[in-house]
Write a structure and sequence with these properties.
- The complex is a heterodimer of chains A (about 250) and B (about 150).
- With about 250 residues, chain A is an alpha+beta fold.
- Chain A has seven helices and eleven strands.
- Chain A has two domains: about 60 residues, no CATH class; about 190 residues, prostaphopain b, domain 1 (Roll), CATH 3.10.500.
- Helices cover about 35% and strands about 25% of the residues of chain A.
- Chain A starts with a helix and ends with a strand.
- By secondary structure, chain B is mostly helical.
- Chain B folds into two domains: about 90 residues, Rna Polymerase Sigma Factor, Chain: A (Orthogonal Bundle), CATH 1.10.1740.10; about 60 residues, Orthogonal Bundle (Arc Repressor Mutant, subunit A).
- Chain B is built from seven helices and no strands.
- In chain B, helix 1 packs across helix 2, helix 2 crosses helix 3 and helix 6 packs across helix 7.
- The longest helix of chain B is centred in the middle third of the chain and has 29 residues.
- Chain B starts with 6 loop residues before the first helix and ends with a helix.
- Chains A and B meet through helix 1, helix 2, helix 5 and strand 7 of A and helix 1, helix 2, helix 4, helix 5 and helix 7 of B.
Chain lengths: ~250, ~150
């Protein structure tokens, strides 16, 4: 009886696997939830400091570029989308940079040591990773926070595309925290094929990577964009203001 | 082995094992996926420094069991409290006989069965993981075997 229970359970469970899409979805959510846990404490501390030193609050925002010289055309929406869809930056939007600075050189050093096990792990998950190469240049994301009307570029998270030949097979997100770098891969989604075609079609174009609410978008200089991972784009304007969202750290040129 | 785990490597290393364990507890894949996610969030936010891989695996196994049992308890409580609701029909899953029988056991028996027969831990190891006497573990296994024999007859 003992052997029977053990062997039957093993047999029934060994074919139970997560689909690639589910695995990716779960991991993204895990990253987001586990990153939010320590940051909530940091935001609380910051809120207390701002309340105590009210005059300092306006100086907390760090502008990393001269807004007036960059924006040359009005924002398509100009103000939060009245239809209730995803809001966009406007004339009053503030800009800030946060997080530890993670450079491509540091990423290169990290991958020189760690890429072998990353590729091995991906291969064991069914990804064609033999001989895959990681992009030398990475990109951060500009995230537009509609509630506070602020564009935040988090330099502590930087994505690098893993190519098998000229086909992207994974996105490796590096996170730098307290000087230590860690890697979180995203892979297996069905949207990778379309994403690869998009990158090929726009070789040489400075693509801007942004988050607008729940939409992760790759924006072209003319404002058209590619929604990564087939995120629903309900409520997002047909065109986005490339200049209003621009931050050079969030640019990747295929 | 020391230091906080690298999230990506950690997830890939344990994903299949934790998902299978959650699936063994829960009746629906969606619930198993939710529990699996909760296990990894707990691991990345509250895990101790692991002494070795064995410690790491045991910790995750116990956490997965606790998360699944809590969820099952919550669902049972909600179904009892919600007098007007009609129980949601379970989505048909491709279950075998033994797994379905194990799932139907009360949580404390299901847990020891999975730890012993599926994970391969001894009664002594299980007693340390669950912080209960080894005799309790052995009695539960004995009772679980009897219940399974009835169910699978």
């Amino acid at each position: 009886m003992d052997n029977f229970i053990g062997s039957e359970l093993t047999k029934e469970l060994e074919n139970v696997v997560l689909s690639a899409d589910s695995s990716e979805r779960i991991f993204k959510s895990v990253k987001k939830r586990s990153a939010a846990a320590p940051r909530r404490a940091a935001v609380t501390v910051l809120a207390v400091l701002v309340a105590v030193c009210a005059a300092v609050s306006s100086a907390v925002v760090i502008s990393d570029r001269a807004r007036d010289t960059v924006q040359t055309e009005p924002t398509p929406s100009g103000s939060p989308d009245g239809s209730g869809g995803t809001a966009l930056p406007g004339p009053g939007t503030r800009y800030t940079v946060r997080g530890e600075d993670l450079t491509d050189a540091e990423a290169g050093e990290y991958f020189a040591v760690n890429l072998p096990w990353i590729l091995s792990s991906l291969s064991s998950s069914g990804i064609e990773a033999d001989g895959a190469k990681v992009s030398e240049k990475g990109y951060c994301h500009v995230k537009y926070d509609a509630e506070n009307d602020i564009c935040v570029t988090d330099t502590g998270f930087r994505d690098y595309i893993l190519f098998s030949g000229d086909v992207p097979v994974a996105i490796l997100t590096l996170c730098k925290e307290n000087g230590a770098i860690s890697c979180s891969p995203a892979f297996g989604g069905e949207w990778f094929g379309a994403y690869g075609e998009f990158l090929k079609a726009h070789a040489g174009t400075p693509l801007l990577f942004v988050y607008l609410g729940s939409v992760e978008a790759v924006v072209l200089p003319d404002g058209s964009f590619f929604a990564v991972s087939d995120f629903p784009t309900d409520g997002v304007s047909e065109k986005l203001d490339y200049n209003a969202l621009y931050n050079e750290r969030a640019v990747y040129t295929p | 082995m020391s230091g906080k785990p690298d999230p990506g490597a950690f997830y890939l290393r344990h994903r299949d094992h934790i998902y299978r364990l959650c699936y063994a507890y829960m009746k629906r894949r969606a619930d198993a996926e939710d529990c699996c996610e909760d296990v990894f969030v707990r691991a990345l936010t509250r895990a101790p420094e692991f002494k070795d891989e064995d410690h790491e695996r045991k910790w995750l196994t116990v956490v997965a069991g606790n998360i699944c049992k809590n969820r099952l308890r919550r669902e049972k409580l909600l179904s009892v409290l919600s007098l007007d609701s009609v129980p949601e029909p379970e989505a048909p899953e491709e279950d075998g006989g033994v797994l379905a029988a194990v799932r139907s056991l009360p949580p404390k028996y299901k847990e020891v069965v999975l730890l012993h027969y599926y994970e391969g831990y001894t009664s002594e190891q299980i007693s340390q993981m669950l912080r209960c006497p080894a005799s309790t573990v052995r009695n539960r296994l004995k009772d679980a075997r009897a219940m399974l024999k009835e169910l699978l007859h």
